[in-house]
Hints:
This protein is mostly helical. The protein is built from 13 helices and three strands.
Amino acid sequence: MAAFRAHSPDYTLFIVTGILVLVGIFMIASASPIIGETRFGEVYFFLKNQLLGAGIGAVAFLAGWRIPFAFWKRMAPLILITSLFLMALVFIPGIGLELKGAARWIELGPITVQPSEIMKLAFVVYIAAWLEAKQKDVKKFSTGFLPFLILLSIVSLLFILQPDIGTLGVLTITATLLFFAGGGKLAQIGILCLIGIVGLWMIVLLQPYRLDRIAVFLKPTQDIQGIGYQLNQSLIAIGSGGFWGKGFGMSQQKFFYLPEPTGDSIFAVFGEEFGFIGSTILIILFLVFSWRGIRIANRAPNLFGSYLAVGITLLIVIQAFINMAAISGLVPLTGLPLSFISYGSSALVTNLAAVGILMNISKYTRT
């Protein structure tokens, strides 16, 4: 038991996370002034809100760090139910906020919350607890695969109705890999992948604009002033950054060329300002984050801690790499923000809370 006594947490993970958050704040400071003034009449609108999110996120991080991770196992059902309730609130007039045809936010007085970010973490917490409890039954169809599929389907429906397919994709990939890590059979994973492909195809049929993203991915030069505009402007930004970049604050594409330069396009602004070398360093930071997260999972004192560490690590890293790959033209555009970097207080607070939980798990890893 001595090996499981509390010891120093993983400060490498702490430092990497801190660097990523600081990079995000500086990139918001660089990318947001012109659109802040244009949209809201306030140059520092985005930076101010991101700093507020970082402050609240720091409190959430410290809470996650200090609360024993076993607490989340006991609270998993309540957390999931609460998250489902918040997801449902986005569809209620007067509470839910719809922007650009998507109902993804709820207004709580002066505060706007994106429940899907909370749901991602809540779902991982619940699945980690469920996998530990069902350890011997995961391989069975009736007690393992079927309950997992039903729960994932319920959550997926809420994401589809919003719609928020990009976030659903990250959650589905993470949950599937976590299910496999918990003892799921390869055949079951194959069935999940097949269901996912069929589901995606149905979504494309119901929302044909998503087919445009696939078409642009296959042929980037297609309709560069229309459906291919964002990808081509992103590639121009990244390409013009060269090896060393133009320097902090010197991006030209952020001036009304890149759609949402503070959102899913922020990696293009980063690439233009810091070039190939800066982008490589950013990728390395996320790889180090992955390494430390998986290391914590491998040394966790119990299965719940291990599954939870894997799930949190995958949630953050998968989203980051999908974003960078999409903006670089390596996968179809998804609209996903870049973890820790893109503008969004809900995502930043939730991610920092999740890393805080990882830090707590790291305090009890096997030595």
